[in-house]
Write a structure and sequence with these properties.
Blueprint lengths: L2 H23 L5 H17 L5 H20 L5 H11 L4 H28 L2 H6 L14 H13 L14 H29 L1
């Protein structure tokens, strides 16, 4: 497994674990957003620096301060804000548009799903159970929508920067071209040596 594959696998696992914890406890520990942010430099080290990384920083700041505004109005939890800002660091302007679209759609579907679940599950089980997200009129674990939307964006190749394909890497192209030229030169030289003998 390459370093880039290891990083993206770890990122996806962190998102799924954060979603599971949010369903179970209705809170997202700081460990998850911190780990997601710390993985990003490893990703940059593997794929290389690009001049557009300033867009990632802008998306991070805008998402954090916008999320803080939603948190102050009670529309989003603090853990949700930190998780969304952390994963937003992995996207440029174009990728962030896809991320926020997936998260918004996931949030709407999640709300409908939990409304149905709270009506299906008996009230006695939800009141006595240890899953607060199933309690009637309780908050929605929006971390699930954030994690789901982020996973969809990652699987759709929206992370920025993306690895440079092997066939576009100058060093490899140069090496291949040089090897081809060398082989062609040897063949031409061999043909010139043998043509007079055949004649």
């Amino acid at each position: 497994m390459s370093a880039g594959s290891f990083v993206t696998t770890a990122l996806c696992l962190l998102l799924m674990l954060a979603a599971a914890v949010d369903i179970w406890k209705l809170r997202i520990p700081n460990l998850f957003p911190i780990a997601i942010i710390l993985l990003f430099p490893l990703w940059i080290y593997d794929v290389g620096w690009t001049p557009t990384l300033w867009q990632n920083a802008v998306i991070l700041l805008v998402t954090f301060f916008g999320g803080a505004l939603l948190f102050s109005r009670g529309w989003l939890g603090g853990g949700d804000v930190k998780l969304l800002a952390a994963i937003a660091l992995w996207f440029d302007f174009r990728g962030a548009a896809a991320l926020f679209l997936f998260v918004a759609i996931g949030g709407a579907l999640l709300s409908i799903l939990f409304i149905l679940l709270r009506r299906i599950v008996p009230a006695r089980l939800t009141s006595e159970g240890n899953i607060p997200s199933l309690k009637a009129r309780g908050p929605i674990p929006y971390g699930v929508a954030i994690a789901g939307g982020a996973l969809l964006a990652i699987l759709n190749g929206q992370i920025s920067p993306q690895p440079v394909p092997w066939y576009q890497q100058p060093s490899r192209i140069g090496a291949t071209t040089g090897q081809s030229d060398s082989a062609a030169s040897i063949m031409i030289s061999w043909a010139r040596d043998w043509m007079p003998r055949i004649a």
